[in-house]
Amino acid sequence: MKGFEGLQKVIHGHHSVGFMLVTGVIMVVVYFCRDDTGTRFDINGETEVAEDYSFKDCDFFNGSWVYDNRSRPLYKEKQCSFMADDYSCEKFGRKDFEYQFWRWQPHGCDLPRFNGTALLEKLRDKRVVFVGDSLGKNHWVSLLCLIDSWILEPSHKVAEWHGSLITFRASEYNVSIDFYWEPLLVESNCDDPVNHRVRDRIIKIESIERHAKQWINADMLIFDSYTWWLEPNMTLLWGSFENPNKTIVESRRVTRYEMALKTWSNWLETHLDRNKTKIFFISLSPDHKEGGDWGKSMGQNCYNETKPIMEEGYWGKGTDTDLMRTAQSMVQDLAKKGVNVKILNITQLSQYRKDGHPSIYKRHWVPPTKLELMNPVQYADCVHWCLPGVPDVWNEILYAYLRYNR
Ligand SMILES: *[C@@H]1O[C@H](CO)[C@@H](O)[C@H](O)[C@H]1NC(C)=O
Ligand SMILES: *[C@@H]1O[C@H](CO)[C@@H](O)[C@H](O)[C@H]1NC(C)=O
Ligand SMILES: *[C@@H]1O[C@H](CO)[C@@H](O)[C@H](O)[C@H]1NC(C)=O
Ligand SMILES: *[C@@H]1O[C@H](CO)[C@@H](O)[C@H](O)[C@H]1NC(C)=O
Ligand SMILES: *[C@@H]1O[C@H](CO)[C@@H](O)[C@H](O)[C@H]1NC(C)=O
Ligand SMILES: *[C@@H]1O[C@H](CO)[C@@H](O)[C@H](O)[C@H]1NC(C)=O
Ligand SMILES: *[C@@H]1O[C@H](CO)[C@@H](O)[C@H](O)[C@H]1NC(C)=O
Ligand SMILES: *[C@@H]1O[C@H](CO)[C@@H](O)[C@H](O)[C@H]1NC(C)=O
Ligand SMILES: *[C@@H]1O[C@H](CO)[C@@H](O)[C@H](O)[C@H]1NC(C)=O
Fold first, then answer.
1. Does residue 171 carry a catalytic annotation?
2. Which pTM does this prediction carry?
């Protein structure tokens, strides 16, 4: 997978105080103006929802994308202090900006309007951890960008990198929102947060403790793990890397995914404080690597795509529903044991967004070859998402759950 993943950007996010001060001043002006006139949210198409509003009958995940250049995007790429080079498509030359202007509209209701202050108040004195792969990081960076403009003082929002863990602190609220790199959930030879481009993946299929002790005491956990399982063959290992007592090559995806999730769920069952920790599992984030799926010629992909797929119910053939079902049944089993995990079923809504990927407009940690430059389809990233963009909606839905206690 991708090299630095922009982790280094997060670090220098908090070094570049000069830049933040400048944008800070601009933001202060903008926000004060809007607050004075009381119209700050009138420019936004949605209505504020009362605190006790109930969304219980609404399926957030069934809906459509609506072009709305009045209320979207929710923030500007350049103004986000925590933006990473992996997702800043505008910075890397993308010229069509419509991908930023789509709002997700559930059929049965409106999503509540995002309010960073309300979210931070809800999370006061709490620790939130996103655990997973680079899509989890994409999701986490999106949340920081959404919150960013609600905290005016740059020194009150700081991100720091400690090995596999990146910590974001909103000090006024005593809130931590962290990301922990753990792409396969269980331990593996891909656990280095920087050098994880490993050709042959080796998974310690029954070991999770080294990771889990970093996050088990959090107040809220948001897991994702999918793309890294798509390899044809992976080696499963028991014992230690130095001293394996058994190894097998497992070529059935669903088998090894199930084994890893079993390790994960056993850990939660025995170690989780059920009264304290809220858990979410993000359903798989679909890619757009195969243009044949939506009627392009075979061998094309998300490169050059500027519009979402509008066909309701569209489903890419490459999306592995077996893995989705595996996660779903694992979560059902956990519920029977008193551990509640909420699945955020974002697969379908993301599936429509063939236009939402960075494609060639991002930092490529390994520069493209001459051959690739001649045929950009070959190095287009059709897996991650530009920001502002699709993961903002994942967070709007997450926000709805947190704020309104669904
Ligand atoms: C989504 O909503 C539409 C319109 O309300 C409804 O016809 C359809 O059955 C729903 N789909 C699912 C999967 O619930
Ligand atoms: C928004 O989109 C409409 C329709 O495409 C266009 O006419 C209008 O100029 C756009 N407004 C802004 C602010 O970009
Ligand atoms: C955001 O939420 C805070 C705290 O609940 C509230 O005081 C504020 O009025 C909200 N802002 C807007 C613009 O809705
Ligand atoms: C900050 O939050 C942590 C829990 O995340 C808590 O243990 C600590 O007491 C809080 N600090 C203050 C000053 O309230
Ligand atoms: C996966 O493993 C099988 C059985 O060991 C082997 O036949 C196949 O060539 C391997 N596939 C790849 C892509 O390495
Ligand atoms: C290998 O070692 C692990 C941990 O020490 C142990 O749980 C497992 O049963 C062992 N497996 C075999 C086949 O000996
Ligand atoms: C969790 O809450 C339940 C009901 O409020 C209580 O009976 C139980 O003792 C609590 N468990 C722990 C570990 O605090
Ligand atoms: C991408 O779009 C450009 C401009 O519209 C066009 O020249 C080029 O042929 C397209 N490339 C592919 C691979 O579709
Ligand atoms: C998620 O949505 C898909 C359709 O978009 C559906 O097939 C699947 O059952 C849903 N999964 C869960 C856990 O709700």
1. no
2. 0.88
